[in-house]
Amino acid sequence: MTERRRAILSGSTFEEQIGYARAVVDGDWVHVSGTTGFDYPTMTISDDVVTQAEQCLRNIEAALAEAGGTLADVVRVRYLLPEREDFEPCWPVLRRHFGPVRPAATMQVCGLADPRMKIEIEVTARRSAA
Prior knowledge:
130 residues, globular, 6 strands, alpha+beta
């Protein structure tokens, strides 16, 4: 399954404006950029942090699928939130997606690029040899 470096784009306007890829495949590794709760085709975002977390994970799943992987391949996840108290409401969503996988995880409180963003999720995955 090993392949050379390949960029995966989601169509987000941020990728073009800032100059990055949604994900980069490097051999069996997939590095997914910090991903927010924007619905990329419409470039809209919910005001609700839990809804944003769900959309983050849909966006990440799409990038991983294009790379030949799934959320089950995630070995590292980073959660970035501007407000600490917004993290706990997201736990059921995160547990549903990552509970069986148990990746290494970090949560950090920090500012995000757009004030509408309430959560950003970054993952690293190692594609299973199939």
